[in-house]
Amino acid sequence: MGIKGLQGFVARVCPDACRMVDLREMAEKHRIDHPDFPPVIVVDAMCCVRYWYTPENWVCGGQWKEYLAVLEDFIKAFMAAGIKLVFYFDGVVEEKKRDEWIKRRLQNNKEIARIFQFIKTHRKQPGRGMFVVPSALPTFTRFALKWLGQKTVCTLQEADFEVAACGLEHNCIGILGQDSDYLIYNTCPYFSIEKLRLDRLVTLMYSREDLCRALGLNLTHLPLFACLLGNDVVPESLLEGFWQKCLVSSPHKNTSYNRRANIILAVASYISKLPCSYSSLKHLKGMLPVGSDETLLTRGVQSYLLPGQQSPWIPPNITNCQTFSLQEQTAMCQDKEILQLAKEQHIRSENYTIFNILSSGETECSNSLEDECDTEIPGQALIYRPARQHIYSVLLESGKGGACPLVKEWFVYFGNPLQQPELIHPVQPSVPGGTPNLKTLWFAKGLDVEKQQYSTFLACFHLQDGMEELQALEAPVAAFCCLLAYLMMQVSSLSLEDLNAFLAVILCLKGKSAAQLAGLQLAQVDSRAVHLGAVFIRGLTTLLLANSACGFPFRMDDLMPWVVFDGKLFQEKYQQSHRSCSLEELLEGNDSLYAPFHNLKSFICKACMAKRRTIQSRPRGNGFITGTQQREFHPRFQQTHRSSFVPPYHSQMRGFLWRNTQPQGKK
User: What Cα–Cα distance (Å) separates residue 233 from each residue in 2, 186, 280, 304, 487?
Assistant: First the structure.
């Protein structure tokens, strides 16, 4: 979160503390000074994703091929200057930041509601002023960077600490991000992603040394300074009385500055006069409201101490070298070998979410671009919950004493106030021969094990009976069919027209370049298709979770959105399908796609019929949803699989998109 208003204050009041720098020149200087160590910039990727996502369309589910091309250009610009990048992603929401996480998620809900109202009113995407990142963008950015050969790290705690520690330990030329906490950590220089000009590799560099000179402080003051302005540890609500005392006694009041700027100056003036000692910190504790946690300031200062660093404000025996041994002792999974492998894969960004579940039994999912007024489509969190329950069972069934503990979920959806986590019961999937344990799925080798991995994965989505047909397909197509069949089973309002649109996307996407997709123009945007695009993308993250739990029956690369989905293309196919266009128009006149289309459709319809779900034709024409009626909240979402339409296609999968017969590599 950083310190509210600090970077704006630096730009307005301390302009000498931020200046434009040429990263090529800094890299060259680093090579001269350290010839044995290449110049490295450590990137706080979570700060950067909204700046990286530059494709024009952002509401339709994501322009993933375009986005991949943007990331590739970003990497090439630094490679051309001989600069290596290391990307860090938040791997956990720490307990101390949960309240702030919830506050932001509830605010995001309001922003998303306004976006949908705009789309329904104007039938187009809002301007960039209402921009929100496409659903699951940070997750797939992590895998995209790995796809592009970059080193990516998924953290075991909040990313800013690990980013700052990496920058210090490896003598990096700087940190690229957009978080004022990097002005506080005593680490390498801090560069702004917001001000980066990629074509010239110049950006704004913030100098903590120059900030200290302007405020009459030294570097050891900065952690306490941050705490007394309010940060992730010390809430601003406790500091109002202290600020007022500082403002009264401050010699630096300036009527041309706003109140926040004057508070920053007043707090700096106050602490500059204090002796740098633990006794001063104890005195400051007495100025906070009666009854507040006496350890707050100590913990706040401690949170900025990187490995090997100490502070005069706290006793010398207190450092911030955080370890995870206690977490591992109390972990949901007590098998050290399993937990260690999950942890290693987590750090290397090779798996998805499972280390959090195995260690803390807790997981979360942020906002998705879902329409709370569309009463026909449940929240994606509810749609995929049955699959997650099976995945939790695979992960935890061999947990403590054989009993399967509950999983705490913080999932954002309409009707969930996020006041507390939902406690989710794992449910054993119906795997032929029984569910294998994690030791078998993760460590055993051989064709029988590969079959168990694949069948367990399919069982999480209620598709274990379709194994032979799915294995005959190319891996990305098989995974796509698995997700689409599950979606059609779970959501009874989805129609044949919706199914046709999704199938047309994967078939037509294969031959299109990022430039071709960028050139695709939409006459209008349908809000229901926006919603379905977000639901589908969240489904892909559920595939990632299942794949990680089941020992990687698929390569993670085969489950990526740029392989199977494009937001604008889906909008186009959705609108064509609901206008009852011809199959020739839907498949862009490509005769070779007709048989694959019918075969995939046949498989999905038959899989649904086996679960007593027949899919109806329900064309919507140009009947865009415009209603604003509030969705009723059904915490126990139940789908009713009743319909009268019988799918016309019963042809087999043979002959279509055969899987490569060579053994498939796994992560």
Answer: 10, 18, 19, 11, 41
Residue 62 confidence (pLDDT) above 70: yes
Q: List helix spans (H) across 254-335.
A: 259-272, 278-285, 296-302, 325-329
Q: Which residues of 593-616 are buried (b: 16+ CB within 10 A; e: fewer)?
A: beebbbbbbbbbbbbbeebebbbe
646 Cβ contact partners less than 8 Å away, ≥ 6 residues apart:
609, 614
Radius of gyration from C-alpha coordinates of the chain: 27
Q: Give Cβ neighbours of residue 510 (< 8 Å, ≥ 6 apart).
A: none
Domains in the chain (CATH in brackets) are 6-211 (3.40.50.1010), 219-275+277-303 (no CATH), 353-611 (no CATH)
- What's the token pair of residue 285? 């504790």
> Three-state SS for 127?
coil
Q: How far apart are CA 155 and CA 88, in angstroms?
A: 7
What are 585's two structure tokens? 């128009």
The answer to whether residues 478 and 559 touch, using CB atoms and an 8 Å cutoff, is no
- Which segments of 6-97 does DSSP mark as H helices, in order? 6-13, 23-33, 45-52, 64-80
155 neighbors 162 (Cβ within 8 angstroms)? yes
The DSSP bridge partners found for residue 363 are: 409
**134 in Cβ contact with 568 (< 8 Å):** no
C-alpha–C-alpha distance, residues 410 and 285, integer Å: 33
- Closest by alpha carbon to 357, among 404, 400, 392? 392
- Compute the C-alpha angle 572/133/189, nearest 5°: 145
Sole residue written with tokens 């399993």: 338
Phi–psi pair at 477, nearest 5 degrees:
-70, -40
List pLDDT tens digits, range 22-36.
Answer: 999 999 999 999 999
Secondary structure (3-state) at 44: strand
pLDDT tens column, 433-470: 899 999 999 999 999 999 999 999 999 999 999 999 99
d(CA 398, CA 438): 8
CB 380 within 8 A of CB 313: no
pLDDT band at 657 (very low <50, low <70, confident <90, very high): low
DSSP 134: P
